[in-house]
Amino acid sequence: MSPLCDPKIQYAAHWESPIGTMVMVSNGTALTGLYFAGQKHFPAQTSDWVWDAAAMPFSETAKQLAAYFRRGIRLFSLPLEPTGTAFQREVWRALESIPYGTCITYSDLAQHMGRSGSERAVGTAVGRNPLSILIPCHRVIGRDGTLRGYAGGLEKKGALLAVEGFRPGLFDPVPQIDAGYAGKPPASAAPEH
Question: Which residues are known to be catalytic?
Answer without folding.
Answer: 137
